[in-house]
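FAQ

Q: What does a record look like?
A: Structure on top, sequence underneath. For example:
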């Protein structure tokens, strides 16, 4: 296995395998970042992906980094080379994208930023492997065929030990099925803290949803 800088360090992979869930969030107001992070931490979730779909994401990252250092915070929807630099400058633990853009993979490698590109097809898997990636984001998971599809496309590459973080269409009823696969260290969950609940500051509902997911993870046999 080649060790490119775009690869996830062993310690971060190990954490993902233990946490098993990454809360994927869209934050509109940076003031909500720290209360959200504390709510997730108190509920047993210590990894968050802040999507760069709003201007608040970078400030949210900085606030979480300074006030909730035990939260592992990464950036999502990293689509441009300058966003790779913003992730590094902001101290992001990792970055992910919905698709596979070789320019971004190489920018992340140059910046020593752990990066997982999004894949849906065998050709994208092969391109990602050639670029040195071993942890991939399977997106959109449910819309492109879900669990059966992931098992099928991974089969020719299983001997490479690739790992996938499924994202898109996962919910409290189906995410456990993905976690039973050996090639899935963790799932990305946007159902844990939906945008409207974050905006409303509804921490009690978010806490209940997060605790429910963590409890289910505790029952998974691998």
């Amino acid at each position: 296995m080649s060790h490119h800088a775009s690869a996830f360090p062993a310690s971060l992979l190990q954490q993902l395998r233990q946490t098993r869930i990454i809360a994927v969030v869209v934050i509109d107001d940076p003031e909500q970042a720290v209360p959200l992070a504390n709510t997730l931490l108190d509920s047993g979730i210590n990894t968050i992906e802040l999507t760069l779909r709003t201007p608040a994401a970078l400030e949210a990252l900085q606030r979480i980094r300074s006030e909730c250092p035990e939260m592992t915070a990464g950036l999502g929807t990293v689509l441009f080379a300058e966003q790779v630099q913003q992730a590094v400058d902001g101290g992001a633990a990792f970055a992910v994208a919905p698709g596979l853009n070789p320019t971004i993979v190489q920018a992340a490698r140059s910046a020593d930023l752990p990066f997982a590109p999004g894949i849906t097809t065998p050709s994208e898997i092969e391109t990602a492997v050639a670029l040195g990636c071993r942890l991939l984001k399977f997106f959109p998971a449910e819309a492109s065929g879900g669990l059966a599809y992931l098992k099928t496309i991974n089969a020719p590459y299983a001997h490479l030990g690739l790992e996938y973080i499924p994202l898109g269409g996962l919910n409290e009823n189906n995410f456990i099925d993905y976690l039973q696969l050996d090639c899935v260290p963790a799932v990305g969950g946007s159902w844990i803290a939906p945008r409207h609940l974050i905006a409303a500051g509804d921490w009690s509902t978010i806490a209940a949803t997060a605790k429910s997911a963590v409890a289910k993870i505790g029952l998974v046999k691998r």
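Q: Is there anything notable about this one?
A: The radius of gyration is 16 Å.
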